């Protein structure tokens, strides 16, 4: 396989960071994200101004549910190559995911100038961002929070999931894999929730959550609940 071949290339020429980068990308394709991370970091330490290196690592971080870290590397990509349209598209996607709608809309304006032929699609995207911004603003004014919700049946699985989270696994992916809650098919997205309508132990756990923060496990009626706050 490509991974086997690239491992051999790394072993035979450890001084060449490009082999590490190629291996990181191959590992990403086969889902070995934790090992891919190590090789991406090694490559960027050796080649800190590599445009594609920062871009691919940003994509990797986004897949791991780390949009803030991903945005740093996408911004670095743009600083190194301001004409890279794909990097600006990913930046808008990340800003939208993070709820930074005004910044995303501003970036759309850059894209309109860079790619006039895509103006109809960009205008549609911009209109969607405006609607999402207005909805989110209204929900926040009502005191609601946008949450992901994981429901686990026992403590053993809670410990297993926490180990995965500690290693950097994406919360939504773990919900789809392990949660027995009805929102599992949506990655745990339960939309905008008013904490005042929740049982006391859950309300207390989520009221103080920062954006992207994950709650401790909450036991209620024999099940364990974990929440992640979204923008």
* Biggest beta sheet summary: 4 strands, antiparallel
Domain count: 2
Classified by CATH, the class of the largest domain is Mainly Alpha
Q: Average pLDDT value?
A: 94
Order of helices and strands: HHHHHHHHEHHEHEE
The fourth-level CATH homologous superfamily of the largest domain is Tetratricopeptide repeat domain
Number of helices: 11
Based on DSSP secondary structure assignment, what is the total number of beta strands? 4
Class by alpha and beta content: alpha+beta
Broad shape: flat
Strand content: 5-15%
- Helix content estimate: 55-70%
Question: What's the CATH architecture of the largest domain?
Answer: Alpha Horseshoe
> Strand order, biggest sheet?
2-1-4-3
Q: What fold name goes in the CATH topology slot of the largest domain? A: Serine Threonine Protein Phosphatase 5, Tetratricopeptide repeat
Return residue spans where pLDDT drops below 50 for at least 5 consecutive residues. none
Rg result: 20 Å
Which descriptors would you attach to this protein?
single chain, 231 residues, alpha+beta, Serine Threonine Protein Phosphatase 5, Tetratricopeptide repeat, Chitinase A, domain 3, 2 domains, four-stranded antiparallel sheet
Describe the protein:
The protein is α+β, with helices and mostly antiparallel strands and 231 residues long. The chain folds into 2 domains: 2-139, Serine Threonine Protein Phosphatase 5, Tetratricopeptide repeat (Alpha Horseshoe), CATH 1.25.40.10; 145-230, Roll (Chitinase A, domain 3). 62% of the residues lie in helices and 10% in strands. A 4-stranded antiparallel beta sheet has the order 2-1-4-3, with helices on both faces. Strand 3 and strand 4 form a beta hairpin. Helix 7 (101-114) runs antiparallel to helix 8 (119-141). The radius of gyration is 20 Å and the shape is flat. The two termini are 40 Å apart. The mean pLDDT is 94.
